[in-house]
Prior knowledge:
This protein is α/β, with parallel strands linked by helices. The chain has a single domain (3-259), classed as Nitrilase/N-carbamoyl-D-aminoacid amidohydrolase (4-Layer Sandwich). 25% of the residues lie in helices and 28% in strands. Strands 5-4-3-2-1-14 form a six-stranded mixed beta sheet. A six-stranded mixed beta sheet has the order 8-9-10-11-12-13, covered by helices on one side. Strand 10 (172-174), helix 5 (181-199) and strand 11 form a beta-alpha-beta unit. Helix 1 packs parallel to helix 3 (65-77).
Amino acid sequence: MNTKIAAIQMVSAPSVEANLASAGRLIAQAAARGAQLAALPEYFCIMGMKDTDKVDVREPLGDGPIQRFLSHTAKQHGIWIVGGSVPLACADPRKVRNSSLVYDAQGKLVARYDKIHLFGFQMGEEQYQESRTIEAGDTPVSIDTPFGRLGLSICYDLRFPELYRAMKGVDIILAPSAFTETTGRAHWETLLRARAIENLAYVAAPAQGGLHPNGRETHGDTMIVDPWGVVLDRLPRGEGVVMAQVNPQRMRALRGSLPALTHRTIG
């Protein structure tokens, strides 16, 4: 049976309360259009004026306004929600785990993935070093759902295809992101389509997309890609909802025609 999924694009700001209000409005739009699963971007709940702002609003697993919002909103609309990334507490008080949380239609937390690959980049005056405020995860996560097997990843993970191979037969890859405009313009679409093609899976990539109050510019171009690498829907910039149908029959047919996943001899 086909499933409608939604990837939500935001331009998040420093206020958690304001961001949650925007996310709630966009999820409601997706639900009204028939989405059974809606995914939010990385840092949907906070894009601070400085990197340490996310540490100040970190939450223990299972408690806090961000997690309560995700649980309540999933239950309210009766849909699955992927909270692209939430700052969760870790052993180091100066850092967070950058965690993707999945809630089912009853508002129950059913999966957590901690971002494994931490972004480091320097080109001219533009530089980022996530390891200063984020503690890396170490475990790939995938989960069986009514829509197929979901594989969880976050942003910079896209550059490491071995992560997705470790997910063992994933049907829908989630890639919530906040790509910089510099790297996004050069690589974003190529990486998303490659991950879809090589895994013969759908890819849903909700992104941050615009100029943020802290001066950072994110690339946007939220999209959903099918297993053949076809972009089904996209939003170049600004907040909004991208939607597409996941068709398991088409995916099975493509995997039957091109059984690359069974031809692997390394790994």
